[in-house]
Amino acid sequence: MTKFWYIIDNIESYICRTLLAVFVCLLFLQVIVRTLFDFSFSWVEELSIYMFVWFVFFGASYAAKKGAHNRVTFQFKFLPNGAIKYIEAFADLFWVFFNVYFVYLSIDFIFNKMNRFQSSQTMGFHLSWVYIVLPIAFTLMTFRVLQVNYKKIVLGEDLRDPDAIDLEEIRAETTTPKQEKK
């Protein structure tokens, strides 16, 4: 895979890292300036909020890429392992339909229904630049959901939730040779 495609495949991660670093630095600067100089930049808090909103939406897309979204999975304990990925894929179809509809609604809002004079209070730019994250992130999230299901069903990859804990694996790693002999 070329470097370009590697970057594109991990674009959410890069965007989230950049946004997080920048808005944390901006807020740190704001705290220092307020504390030491009894002064504040009015635009820092507003820009940090917008950056945080973008961070959340791109983070949701990144979670979709990793298969780490919250799901109710208790009922899968009673089903054969082979059926679970198909049931999850069927449920993900509803997620994809919701995302596509939300992309349509957000584009309609931004370009047709939004007040043309609505601008950022301290920075002065049009708020459509903030809201444009909605169709971008939900389109990317839709692509990631489809990508994960393709990897699971067609390629047969085992994409585990990164937050899932395998207790047997942890026990095997923490067991010392003396404990195994007993």
TrEMBL record:
| GO CC annotations, alphabetized | plasma membrane
The molecular function GO annotations come to: transmembrane transporter activity
In what residue span(s) does the Tripartite ATP-independent periplasmic transporters DctQ component domain sit? 24-147
Report the superkingdom from the record.
Bacteria
Q: Would you kindly state one Gene Ontology biological process term found in this protein's UniProt entry?
A: C4-dicarboxylate transport
The record's subcellular location field reads:
Cell inner membrane
Recite the UniProt keywords alphabetically.
Answer: Cell inner membrane, Cell membrane, Membrane, Transmembrane, Transmembrane helix, Transport
Q: According to its record, how does it sit in the membrane?
A: Multi-pass membrane protein
Instruction: Please list every transmembrane segment annotated in the UniProt record, as residue ranges.
Output: 20-41, 47-65, 86-107, 127-146
Record family assignment: Belongs to the TRAP transporter small permease family.
Q: What does this chain do?
A: Part of the tripartite ATP-independent periplasmic (TRAP) transport system.
How it assembles, according to the record, is:
The complex comprises the extracytoplasmic solute receptor protein and the two transmembrane proteins.
Q: What is this protein called?
A: TRAP transporter small permease protein
Origin species? Roseobacter litoralis (strain ATCC 49566 / DSM 6996 / JCM 21268 / NBRC 15278 / OCh 149)
Gene expressing this chain: tauL
